[in-house]
Amino acid sequence: MCGKRVSASSGDALILPKDDENTKDVLHRRPTFGTRHALVTWAFLGFAVMYILRVNMTITLVAMTTNSSGMNLNLPNSSDCIYASTAESSNRNYTAEFDWSNTVQGFVLSAFYYGYFASQIPASFLVRCFGGRTVLGISLMICSALSLLTPEAARFSVWALICVRALQGCSQGLVFPSMQLLLSKWAPSAERSQMVAFTYSGCQAGTVVGILVAGILCSTNSLGWPSVFYIFGGAGILWALGWLLFAHETPAHHPRITDSERYFIESTVGRHPYQELQTPWRAILTSPALYAIMGAHFANDWGCFALMTCLPKFMKEVLNFDINENGILSSLPYLVMWIVNFVAGPLADHLRKPNRLSTAVVRKLMVSVGLFGPAVALLVTTYLPGCQRTLTVSLLTLAMGFSGFTIAGHSVNHLDIAPAFAAVLFALTNTVGTISGLIGPALVGVLTEKHETRSQWNIFFIVSGSIYSIGGLIFVLLARGELQDWAKMKDLEASVSVLPSEYGSIQKG
């Protein structure tokens, strides 16, 4: 038993106007900035904190380790930045405490994703039992508390650090399924892409802030790398307390929502008690639409997880940027990706308006730009002559910028095809996507254990470009944009009234 269920249909019943003119009048009175916007703003900040806690290890590890025991036999050739080889040592304002090989560092970076992988499927059950709001808030509070323990764990032993990072991954694994469930109850059809894009753009914002600020803190003698975990861990606990106090599970639960806004939301998402539905596992697992999202999810996560985790290492060991430059340049691709997120959501919803493009076509278009674009940029990177630091950073930035379009593609497609089971679908696709976080850092560790050269990293970029291309192709061939037959429910459909066309009624295709 789950204990007390959180019903999406609890709360006082809302009497909806029957005629079209009264419907328009109610909708015109809804606030410009409503409770749904407040929810996604809180969520945006939460996802920013979550990614800060995720990525801070990628830059602090550069400051924590010397790697003198790694037998890092860089053999200079025409593609290596040998002219800048003293940049790090000449600008270093910190003392490295640990002497870990590249392989060990790869395990440290991968540890988070082992925990993240293990918690995806359990997350889908937990959020349906206890609600997305509660699970999301508690999981980020636990992750933040673990951040405070990270410096002492590292000083105790590398295996203690690996365990703490795995537990952090486990707690963060509950966050996305929780938010998918909340969005299925709060995001009107006409605003779905925008709300999803804005919420999840917090990931890129957190990556930018996390890498940039971590670089500054690590290079400051008076603070040092431990301050990264203390400052952001404390910030995460404060956010979680605010979320648990002010966020609400459904529009019906919110004490300050207006009738007009509640009607606008419930007119397209319904008021069905999703927690009480039986999951159609056979239909889900045999649906081509699920595997389309899985393919795109894995490819995009490979770029986000593998490149995000390993980019600071590439900046240091191959391009020879110092810790301050590393933080700034490693955050640049995610700053561009964040900006693209803000464009992609509204653009997708604009294209989906009546008499324009179908939902399926829009999702495929966004994923095509978001996956084929980075594939081309990464493959071009491998053909650059000599060091070409500026052009290399520009292409990596362009690759991550293109991938920002997927936020309005596969990331929201779960809500298109099965809103009632969005948390379950996301748990399944995110489980597959997380495998990239397990493989990527380990692959880099193996490739660069003895030869930290540009040619070895080019192998990684070729693999990454190929994965992007395959994932994009799978989505284009198999993706769907309409509500799937196995996700339709008569009582849910009966609770959804059709809005006037200018307000974005439920669309098919």
Number of strands: 0
Give the overall shape. globular
Helix content: 55-70%
Which residues form runs of ≥5 with pLDDT under 50? Answer: 3-11, 13-21, 68-79, 83-91, 491-509
Which structural class do the helices and strands define? Answer: mainly alpha
Order of helices and strands: HHHHHHHHHHHHHHHHHHHH
- Distance separating the two termini: 38 Å
Mind summarizing the main beta sheet? none
- Rg for CA atoms: 23 Å
> Please, how many helices?
20
Report the β-strand fraction as a percent range.
under 5%
List keywords for this structure.
globular; 69% helix; single chain; 509 residues; mainly alpha; 20 helices
Write structural notes for this entry.
The radius of gyration is 23 Å and the shape is globular. The relative contact order is 0.17. It is an all-alpha fold. Residues 3-11, 13-21, 68-79, 83-91 and 491-509 have low confidence and may be disordered. Helix 2 packs across helix 13, helix 8 (175-186) runs antiparallel to helix 18 (422-448) and helix 13 (288-317) runs antiparallel to helix 17 (410-417). It has 20 helices and no strands. The chain has helices at residues 20-28, 35-64, 87-91, 102-118, 120-130, 132-156, 158-172, 175-186, 192-218, 226-246, 259-269, 281-285, 288-317, 323-351, 359-381, 389-403, 410-417, 422-448, 454-478, 490-494.
Short description:
The chain is mainly α and 509 residues long. The protein contains 20 helices and no strands.
